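User: quick one, sequence for these C-alpha cells?
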C-alpha cells in the first residue's frame, strides 16, 4: 500500500485548495456551453464526470493589451496525491473554439507537477500516461474494472516533462509501475526517460498501433473497459523478451565479412518478433519472342505467359520477395544463399501452393489493416467463443469441457512457433463415434491443416516441413497398442510422434537426390484418430479426447448440424489475421510464464493456458483448466486393476447403467481402456493387470473396491449365461456428482421390465451388432455372446 503523504506537489508541502467560487464559476460556464459539451462527447468524454471528478470548467474570454482576446479553453485544477483540487490550473485548447491559446494542446504555468486521478491511498499500482486528458479518460474506464482499487493514474502537467518528485525514490515504492505513454517515437523516448529514473522493473503498456497513438484514439476506436483490462494483463516487462525489432537488414546494407550459417524455414516461422506466412500468386504477363515474318525479316512479338510466384507476408503487413545473390566463380549451386528482401536468410523458397489456407483477398485485407492502423480481427474472446460454438454445432462430445480444449488447440495452431513444446491430440473411440468427423471439423478451422490417411514416414515429415500447419493422421492404428508389432509402414511415424511435441527434438535429417543433407522440421500441431488408444510414451505428450456414438436424443434435437464451410472458412481467414497480430504478445506471455525446468505435463499444457488467458474470460479459463486436469489426472501414477475397473464402471453408468451392471459390459469397457493392455501379449503386461482378462479376476476386484453390492446374479443374454450385479449407491452418487461437476454428458437410464433386462440393455437395445458401440471389441472379448447374436448359434 502507498502513503500519499510522502509526496509534495513541489511548490507547496500541503496542497492548497482551489477557491470554491473560482471552481464553481468555471464549471457553470462549461455546463452552459453546448458547443464545448458536444466537442467533449466527440472525444469520448462524459462532461458531467469531468466536472464532478476533476473540476473541469471553461475559462471566460478576456481582453489583453492591444484589444487581443484570449479564452474559451478548458480549465482543470491540478489534482494532488490526496485527491485535493489545488489552485494550480491546467488549461486545454479546444480546436476551433478556444481563442488565441498559448499551446496547441495543453499548458500549465510554473514547474512540471504530478497530476493525479484522485486519492492514491492504499493503491499499489501506478500507471503513468502522457497528459491529464489521458488521466481523465482512463479514470472513467477504471471505474468499471477490478483495477480501480489498486491503480493510481498520473501524468505531468507539462507535455512529456518529468516532474522533480518522480525521482528520489518515488517510483520504488510502488508494487508495479506501468508506463502507458504514446506509441509514437516521442512517447517511446519519454518511456525510456522514465525508466532511467529508477533501477526497478517497469511494465510497458502499449497502445495498439492499429488504433492510434494515444488513449483518446484507443477508446474512440471502440475499445472498452474489458479490452483495457486485458491490455494491462498482456503488458510486457521493459528490457525482457520478446525481441520485437527485426535484427536483419537487406543484403545491400550488410557489411562485408563472415557470418554464421543459420538459415530458417520461413513458412510460419516466428523470427525477430514477426511471424511469416508464405503464399503463392499466379501472375499473368507477356514475353517477347523473336519470329521470322513472311518477308524473311525478324520481328519481336509479345506472347502471353502465366506463372506462379511465391511471396511472404510479415506480421507487420510487409510483403516480401526473395533474393538469390549471384555466386562467385567456382562456388557450387549447393552453396547458394537465399534471402528474403529484408535480409532474413532462409533454407529454401517455400512451396505453399498445396497447403496454404490463407486466401489472397484476406492477406491483402490484413496488410491494409496493419499499415493503416485498423483492427485486423475481433477480440480473442469473441473468436474463441465462435470457434467453440462451431465445433459444438458440428459434432458431439460426452465431456463438455473438451470443446474448450479443442478450441484452444485450434487457436494454438496459428501461433505454435511461439512455443517450445505443444501437446498432441488423440481422438479415441469406437467405430461410428465421430472421430473422423471431428478431425475434419478441426482441420476446417486450423492453420494450413491437412488430413493424411496413409503414407510413409518420409512423406509425413516432408509435408510437415513444407506445410508447417496442423496435420490430421486419420485412423492411424500404428499409435495404438494392438498394432505395435505390426509391419504396416507406420512404425517410424510412431517414433517420430514421440519427439515431435518439442521444437528442439522435432527434426529429421534426410539425404537429397544430389547427395546433400537437409534437416526437416516436423514440430507442429497434430491430431490423431484411432480405436485402440495410444502407447505409454506417446500418452505423456498427448491429450486423449474420448469420442462416443451420439445419443438418439441429441440426434433428434437437431443441435448437431455438421460441418458448414460457409461458417468455418471466414472464421479461419480471421484466425490467420489473429495469429499474425497476436503472436508477439502470446510469445511474451508464454516466456514469462514458462519455467526453465518444468516437467513435460507443464510444458505441453502451458500453451493452452496462455491461449485461455488471452481470451480474458474467466469461465473459458476455468473450463479449459478442468479439461486439462481431467485429461492429465493420474498420468504419472501406476495404474491398478481397481482404477481400471472403476473407470469401466463409470463408463457403463455414462452409457445408461443405473441400478444394475453386467460383467459382459464391464469387460467390453475394460477392453476399450488402453491402460488395461487387454490385447497385448502376456509377457509385456504387468502381472497385476492379468486379472482383468477373465470374469473371475474382475469379480474379485468388484468386491474389493466398493463398486457393487449384494450377491452375484446370473441370467441368459442371447442364450449365454452372464453375471450381473447391483451398483453400490454411494459409488453411483459420487460418479453422477463427478459427471455434473465436469460437465460430462450422460445417456438416459437403460430401460427394461426388470433389473435383469436393465443389466443387459447395453446389448438388447440394438437390433444388430453394427449399431453397437462395442462392435470393434465384442468379437475379441465375448466370443460366444457375439457369435450367438450375429448367427444365432
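Assistant:
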Amino acid at each position: 500500500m502507498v502513503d500519499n503523504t510522502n509526496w509534495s506537489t513541489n511548490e507547496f508541502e500541503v496542497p492548497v485548495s482551489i477557491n470554491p467560487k473560482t471552481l464553481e464559476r468555471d464549471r457553470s460556464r462549461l455546463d452552459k456551453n453546448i458547443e464545448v459539451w458536444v466537442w467533449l462527447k466527440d472525444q469520448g468524454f462524459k462532461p458531467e464526470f469531468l466536472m464532478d471528478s476533476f473540476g473541469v470548467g471553461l475559462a471566460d474570454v478576456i481582453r489583453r493589451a492591444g484589444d487581443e482576446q484570449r479564452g474559451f479553453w478548458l480549465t482543470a485544477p491540478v489534482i494532488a496525491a490526496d485527491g485535493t483540487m489545488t489552485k494550480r490550473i491546467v488549461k486545454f485548447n479546444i480546436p476551433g473554439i478556444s481563442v488565441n491559446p498559448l499551446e496547441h494542446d495543453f499548458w500549465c504555468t510554473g514547474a512540471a507537477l504530478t497530476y493525479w486521478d484522485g486519492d492514491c491511498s492504499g493503491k499499489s499500482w501506478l500507471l503513468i500516461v502522457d497528459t491529464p486528458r489521458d488521466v481523465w479518460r482512463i479514470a472513467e474506464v477504471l471505474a468499471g474494472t477490478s483495477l480501480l482499487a489498486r491503480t493510481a493514474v498520473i501524468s505531468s502537467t507539462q507535455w512529456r516533462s518529468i516532474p522533480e518528485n518522480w525521482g528520489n525514490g518515488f517510483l520504488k515504492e510502488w508494487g508495479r509501475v506501468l508506463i502507458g505513454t504514446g506509441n509514437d517515437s516521442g512517447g517511446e523516448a519519454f518511456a525510456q526517460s522514465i525508466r532511467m529514473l529508477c533501477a526497478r522493473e517497469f511494465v510497458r503498456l502499449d497502445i495498439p498501433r492499429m488504433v492510434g497513438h494515444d488513449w483518446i484514439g484507443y477508446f474512440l476506436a471502440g475499445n472498452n473497459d474489458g479490452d483495457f483490462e486485458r491490455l494491462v494483463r498482456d503488458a510486457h516487462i521493459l528490457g525482457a523478451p520478446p525481441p520485437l525489432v527485426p535484427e536483419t537488414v537487406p543484403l545491400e546494407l550488410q557489411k562485408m565479412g563472415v557470418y554464421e550459417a543459420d538459415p530458417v524455414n520461413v513458412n510460419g516461422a516466428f523470427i525477430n518478433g514477426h511471424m511469416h506466412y508464405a503464399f503463392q500468386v499466379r501472375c499473368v504477363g507477356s514475353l517477347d519472342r523473336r519470329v521470322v515474318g513472311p518477308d524473311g525479316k525478324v520481328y519481336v512479338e509479345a506472347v502471353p505467359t502465366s506463372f506462379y510466384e511465391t511471396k511472404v507476408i510479415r506480421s507487420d503487413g510487409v510483403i516480401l520477395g526473395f533474393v538469390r545473390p549471384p555466386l562467385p566463380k567456382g562456388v557450387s549451386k549447393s552453396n547458394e544463399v537465399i534471402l528474403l528482401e529484408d535480409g532474413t536468410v532462409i533454407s529454401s523458397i517455400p512451396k505453399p501452393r498445396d497447403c496454404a489456407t490463407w486466401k489472397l483477398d484476406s492477406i491483402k485485407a490484413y496488410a491494409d489493416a496493419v499499415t493503416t492502423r485498423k483492427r485486423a480481427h475481433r477480440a480473442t474472446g469473441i473468436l474463441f467463443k465462435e470457434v467453440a460454438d462451431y465445433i459444438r454445432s458440428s459434432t458431439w462430445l460426452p465431456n463438455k469441457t473438451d470443446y474448450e480444449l479443442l478450441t484452444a488447440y485450434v487457436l494454438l495452431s496459428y501461433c505454435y512457433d511461439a512455443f517450445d513444446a505443444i501437446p498432441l491430440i488423440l481422438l479415441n473411440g469406437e467405430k461410428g463415434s465421430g472421430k473422423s468427423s471431428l478431425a475434419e471439423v478441426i482441420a476446417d478451422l486450423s492453420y494450413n491443416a491437412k488430413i493424411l490417411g496413409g503414407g510413409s514416414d518420409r512423406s509425413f515429415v516432408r509435408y510437415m516441413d513444407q506445410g508447417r500447419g496442423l496435420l490430421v493422421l486419420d485412423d492411424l492404428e500404428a499409435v495404438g497398442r494392438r498394432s505395435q508389432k505390426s509391419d504396416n509402414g507406420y512404425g517410424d511415424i510412431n517414433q517420430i510422434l514421440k519427439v515431435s511435441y518439442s521444437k528442439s527434438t522435432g527434426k529429421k535429417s534426410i539425404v537429397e537426390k544430389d547427395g546433400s543433407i537437409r534437416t526437416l522440421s516436423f514440430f507442429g500441431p497434430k491430431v490423431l484418430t484411432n480405436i485402440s488408444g495410444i502407447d505409454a510414451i506417446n500418452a505423456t505428450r498427448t491429450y486423449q479426447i474420448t469420442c462416443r456414438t451420439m445419443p438418439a436424443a441429441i440426434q433428434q434435437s437437431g443441435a448437431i448440424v455438421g460441418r458448414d464451410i460457409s461458417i468455418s472458412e471466414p472464421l479461419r481467414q480471421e484466425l490467420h489475421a489473429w495469429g499474425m497480430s497476436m503472436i508477439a504478445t502470446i510469445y511474451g506471455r508464454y516466456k514469462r510464464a514458462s519455467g526453465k525446468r518444468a516437467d513435460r505435463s507443464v510444458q505441453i499444457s502451458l500453451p493452452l493456458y496462455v491461449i485461455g488467458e488471452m481470451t480474458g474470460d474467466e469461465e473459458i479459463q476455468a473450463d479449459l483448466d478442468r479439461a486439462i486436469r481431467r485429461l492429465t489426472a493420474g498420468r504419472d501414477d501406476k495404474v491398478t486393476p481397481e482404477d481400471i475397473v472403476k473407470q469401466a464402471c463409470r463408463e457403463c453408468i455414462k452409457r445408461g447403467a443405473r441400478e444394475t451392471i453386467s460383467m459382459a459390459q464391464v469387460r467390453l469397457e475394460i477392453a476399450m481402456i488402453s491402460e488395461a493392455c487387454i490385447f497385448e501379449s502376456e509377457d509385456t503386461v504387468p502381472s497385476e493387470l492379468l486379472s482383468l482378462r477373465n470374469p473371475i479376476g474382475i469379480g474379485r476386484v468388484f468386491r474389493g473396491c466398493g463398486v457393487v453390492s449384494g450377491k452375484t446374479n446370473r441370467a441368459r443374454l442371447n442364450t449365454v449365461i452372464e453375471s450381473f450385479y447391483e451398483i453400490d449407491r454411494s459409488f453411483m452418487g459420487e460418479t453422477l456428482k463427478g459427471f455434473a461437476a465436469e460437465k460430462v454428458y450422460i445417456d438416459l437410464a437403460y430401460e427394461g421390465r426388470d433389473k435383469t433386462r436393465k443389466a443387459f440393455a447395453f446389448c438388447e437395445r440394438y437390433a444388430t451388432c453394427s449399431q453397437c458401440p462395442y462392435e470393434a471389441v465384442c468379437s475379441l472379448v465375448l466370443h460366444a455372446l457375439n457369435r450367438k447374436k450375429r448367427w444365432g448359434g
